[in-house]
Amino acid sequence: AKQSGRNGYQFYTTEMQLTTDRALQIENALRRALERDQLRLHYQPQLSLSTNRIVGVEALLRWQHPELGQVAPAEFIAIAEASGQIQGIGEWVLRTAAQQAKQWRDLGLAPMTMSVNLSAVQFRHPDLPELVARILAEAQLPPQFLELELTEGVALHDPLGAIAVMEHMHQQGVKISIDDFGTGYSSLSYLKRFHAHQLKIDQSFVRDITDDPEDLAIVNAIISMAHSLGMNTIAEGVETQAQLTLLRAQGCDEVQGYFFCRPQPPEELVAFLRAHS
Ligand code: C2E
Ligand code: CA
Ligand code: CA
Ligand code: CA
Fold first, then answer.
1. Cα of 134 to ligand 2 centre, how many Å?
2. Which whole-number Å values give the CA distances from 268 to 94, 261, 265, in the listed order?
3. pLDDT single digits (tens) 58-84
4. Which residue's alpha carbon is at the smallest distance from atom 8 of ligand 1?
5. Which atom of ligand 1 is found nearest the CA of 44?
6. Which mutation among 236, 244, 255, 264 tests ligand 1's pocket best, with the greatest number of atoms within 8 A of CB?
7. pTM flag (> 0.95)
8. How far apart are CA 6 and CA 230, in angstroms?
9. What is the dihedral of CA 257, 262, 263, 267, to 10 degrees?
10. ipTM > 0.90?
């Protein structure tokens, strides 16, 4: 906190300095993370509530650095976006996830979508549609098995441009899910033009759904709206049976969360997938 007085001021600058040092450290270390093979994807299953089957997995980036330790994506993705490194990292994520999906198909596991998080910076890059097409072709993965998770924020500065890219993806057959839905600022009037097939209900609404009638009302409204607009819904961050029961009663289509399965490295997830397919 910024305070008056010499000590308060000093505290403030030291704290800011620490923040900047760490960001610089991460930025530099990240530059070598790809070539040193420090990035991994973990995968978390998405369960259909109508069939009780796994219908997809979400790829979540993990970075283990020898000195910095395990750095959370929430921390390093923002730095990678600001430094321009997200393009290379994002391409690696897309390619690795697509190849993993193909490999699981080849193992004879039931078909599932592979959900990949896309940052706004990646989404705005003019070569994205071409990159996605190339990666799908390389992995020999049919486009309907790839789902891009975009936050509402991608459309913030240039809604028409964003809608055009989504339209392009949709034509290609790739699915789009709107992540963290309900926390962004996008105009609802754009929603129907987004070519999204799914709204992902943010975990902040799921967390208190059993105690907070307002959160329950919001979840209910999101589900009704999605269904009226021809979209389905997935709730993220489901941690308890009570949450699951409520979400099912509200007509939510899919769930994802620790209650069902934590994000896991591919070697470990495959056993879980086998048991549930
Ligand atoms: P997100 O896309 O909203 O992902 C959901 C986060 O919730 C993940 O955190 C996941 O591990 C965590 N989670 C899953 N189930 C539960 C649960 O039951 N309870 C709780 N409390 N949390 C749960 P994670 O893996 O730390 O990722 C954080 C964020 O970093 C992601 O939020 C996403 O915005 C970003 N991210 C992760 N991987 C990538 C990536 O490959 N590319 C980009 N651009 N962003 C990524
Ligand atoms: Ca999905
Ligand atoms: Ca996500
Ligand atoms: Ca989220």
1. 22
2. 20, 11, 6
3. 999 999 999 999 999 999 999 999 999
4. 60
5. 14
6. 236
7. no
8. 59
9. -140
10. yes
